[in-house]
Amino acid sequence: xxxxxxxxxxxxxxxxxxxxxxxxxxxxxxxxxxxxxxxxxxxxxxxxxxxxxxxxxxxxxxxxxxxxxxxxxxxxxxxxxxxxxxxxxxxxxxxxxxxxxxxxxxxxxxxxxxxxxxxxxxxxxxxxxxxxxxxxxxxxxxxxxxxxxxxxxxxxxxxxxxxxxxxxxxxxxxxxxxxxxxxxxxxxxxxxxxxxxxxxxxxxxxxxxxxxxxxxxxxxxxxxx
Length: 225
Ligand code: C5P
Description:
The chain has 225 residues and is an alpha/beta fold. Helices cover 45% and strands 17% of the residues. It has a single domain, classed as TIM Barrel. The protein is built from 11 helices and 8 strands. An 8-stranded parallel beta barrel has the order 1-2-3-4-5-6-7-8, surrounded by 8 helices. The model has no long low-confidence stretch (mean pLDDT 96). The chain binds cytidine-5'-monophosphate. Residues 9, 11, 33, 35, 60, 111, 114-115, 151, 173, 175, 184, 202-206 line the site of cytidine-5'-monophosphate (C5P).
């Protein structure tokens, strides 16, 4: 069976708190997500911090803008040496292709439908095809225009693996070892995500909010075996 990597989300408000978390996860976790929370608070120093500790960075800024703007943002992310960046697949073919054509670039992971959406929420946002079909359509557009992977819920991972096996990495947030009753509506356990075919799982609060983040990460890694 293929390997599923853990990406720990460094969703902390300060660089110091991120450093504290890295201290606890060092040696266990190789990939770290720097997203809009930490990047807005601390900027590129957050990326440097992970790199200095030998980790790899998924820069999750979920770009969505005109092609020229996103292309330049992705170029700067590439210069920082991040492993991957996220961009919304709903940003369109030209936006994605402009990024895919860059010489030196990180992996492009396209957001399909956020894991915080349920069917009703997606409908209210103006999408009329339902979650599965919207995810399928956006992933097909990603595959055709240069995305290296797509971000989806583990609930759609098995479907996408059948269609795009080997061509698109599947990155799945919405991981809950135990139910938390929070904003993640389409969530499953780490083992279920692995079985569905996820290449990477992105885990935030089950690690960051745990009394013992190292033990929480260890339990998740055990569940992924
Ligand atoms: O705390 P939690 O485990 O919900 O964190 C999940 C992380 O994955 C958050 O940093 C969130 O921004 C990110 N993410 C997500 N859904 C996506 C893409 C990224 O939840 N589609």
